[in-house]
Design goal:
Layout: E1 3-15, E2 18-24, E3 37-40, E4 52-60, E5 65-71, H1 75-82, E6 88-95, E7 108-113, H2 120-126, E8 133-139, H3 148-152, E9 156-161, E10 168-169, H4 177-180, E11 185-189, H5 192-205, E12 208-212, E13 228-231, E14 234-237, H6 238-241, E15 244-246
Parallel strand pairs: 7-8, 7-11, 8-9, 9-10, 11-12
Antiparallel strand pairs: 1-2, 1-6, 2-5, 3-4, 3-6, 4-5, 12-15, 13-14
């Protein structure tokens, strides 16, 4: 069930070009699937007329809190990252379709590039019945890698950076684990070139794979047709039919 909630910002952690906001609701949070997102109203910014879609990074139902990892990309997200503790944020949630839950005997790999790590943490927590969870996180440099301790608390973390400043040098599709680890399900979120490369790798290895698309969104409910993706089933609104898609539905 979708809700419109006025959250209070009760915590904030700043990174280079990003901020982690902890929001608290005065009411009980609705049930949220890993991979779903929220649409956040941007107040006090003349250049941001539309809400901003933000992946749900973490949820604490006991304390009614929601963690959002926001990248400073354009005026709207810059305004959100600049909000102080104590500010009120109006949120529509939860939106979209999340990741497919794995079977108990699956060996999964969660791949995140840059800010694409955001939806993977909460999904990993939802998968806590698995024997092991593996993360493959990539960035241009070590400065692009955030909240690694959070991910290490949920599973094994493997890292690549383009410049070799942390982990293995190269792209996520070039990490040595592809030659040593048996994976039967992949979940990925990040820049489009990265996800296309992951999808190609998954197809070559015959591995089931879902990706979370980051098409530009506006309404968040499939009404404005801003985020349409041309798929094997025709044009689909990413905000409503996704953002998570099995790669077999995509024309990549």
């Amino acid at each position: 069930m979708k809700k419109i909630i006025d959250f209070s910002i009760i915590g904030k952690q700043e990174f280079r070009r990003a901020a982690l906001l902890r929001l608290q609701s005065p009411t009980t949070l609705p049930e949220i699937r890993g991979g779903q997102f929220v649409n956040v109203r941007v107040d006090g910014c003349d250049k941001a007329y539309l809400r901003r879609p933000i992946s749900i990074h973490d949820v604490d139902y006991q304390n009614n809190t929601l963690d959002l990892l926001v990248q400073e990309k354009h005026e709207g997200t810059k305004a959100l990252c600049a909000l102080p503790v104590g500010a009120t944020v109006n949120v529509v949630m939860p939106l979209g379709n999340g990741f497919t839950m794995p079977e108990p005997d699956d060996n999964i790999l969660l791949i995140g590039g840059g800010i694409g790590i955001a939806p993977l943490l909460y999904f990993a927590k939802k998968c806590n019945y698995l024997q092991n969870i593996n993360f493959l996180l990539g960035g241009r440099t070590q400065d692009d890698l955030m909240l690694l301790d959070r991910f290490r608390n949920e599973g094994d973390v493997f890292i690549t950076t383009n410049d070799g400043s942390m982990g293995e040098k190269g792209f996520v599709t070039e990490h040595s684990l592809w030659n040593t680890m048996k994976i039967n399900k992949i979940y990925a979120c990040g820049p489009l070139p990265m996800m296309k490369a992951v999808a190609k790798m998954a197809r070559e290895k015959g591995v089931w794979c879902e990706v979370s698309l980051e098409n530009q969104m506006a309404c968040g409910i499939g009404a404005c047709l801003c985020c349409v993706e041309n798929t094997k089933e025709g044009n689909l609104c990413v905000c409503k039919e996704g953002p998570v898609f099995n790669i077999e539905r995509l024309l990549w």
